[in-house]
Specification:
The chain is an alpha/beta fold and 205 residues long. Helix content is 32%, strand content 23%. The strands form 2 sheets. It has a 6-stranded parallel β-sheet with strand order 5-4-6-7-8-9. Strands 1-2-3 form a 3-stranded parallel β-sheet, with helices on one face. Pfam families: ANF_receptor (PF01094).
């Protein structure tokens, strides 16, 4: 601040970002961010480029309804992950949808996935740190939870960190993930990888 900065960009961490945003509001400093915002009310000095969690949850529900998921496991890593998906827990897409919720980290992926397998749950919503995607997918292989019965829906934008499509190409389970696309693109990306679905959830205008 002493050097006379004109604006602040970031950070992307939801908790730290909220703290920085509060400081910017107090000091009248423009703040441009791209993070999950748990308090989406209007902020005078802040512009958030991240898709709203409300829109994302609508997309998750639409996919679950379309695929008729009636028994689902939610695996989340960070504490705010469950808060982020609370709409799915409070109001599932259908009243008959059964939810099994577990928190997991790289050290407990196998244990949690094993419990889900024992309960014969084949539809999973996964909210994990993209940096740990390799460990999560490796646990899937180790437990042989990669056959045609399983469908994994990732709620974080993971493609840039780990090529999930490459993983899906050599396995049999279904994978759905979401991405942000520029609406000005004349030709939208197409994907021909078997068992792999890239869902376009939100468009930048």
């Amino acid at each position: 601040m002493e050097f006379g900065i004109q604006a602040i960009f970031g950070p992307s961490d939801p908790l730290l970002g909220a703290h920085i945003q509060s400081i910017c509001e107090a000091l009248d400093i423009p703040h441009v961010e791209a993070r999950i915002d748990f308090e989406p009310a209007f902020k005078e000095f802040s512009i958030n480029l991240h898709p709203s969690q409300e829109h994302m949850n609508h997309a998750f529900k639409d996919v679950m309804t379309f695929l008729n998921w009636t028994k689902v496991a939610i695996v989340y890593e960070e504490d705010y992950g469950l808060f982020k998906l609370q709409d799915l827990v409070k109001v599932p897409p259908a009243m008959r949808t059964e939810m099994y919720i577990r928190q997991a980290s790289p050290g407990t992926y196998r244990q949690v996935l094993k419990e889900i397998r024992q309960k014969e749950i084949f539809k999973l919503i996964v909210d994990t740190n993209p940096k740990h995607m390799y460990q999560f997918l490796r646990a899937i292989l180790q437990l042989q939870m990669n056959d045609y019965r399983y469908h994994y829906m990732f709620t974080t934008f993971v493609s840039k960190t780990y090529k999930v499509s490459d993983f899906a190409r050599h396995n049999y389970m279904e994978i759905t993930e979401f991405m942000v696309l520029d609406s000005q693109l004349e030709v939208l990306p197409t994907f021909t990888v078997p068992n792999y679905t890239m869902s376009i959830m939100y468009r930048i205008r």
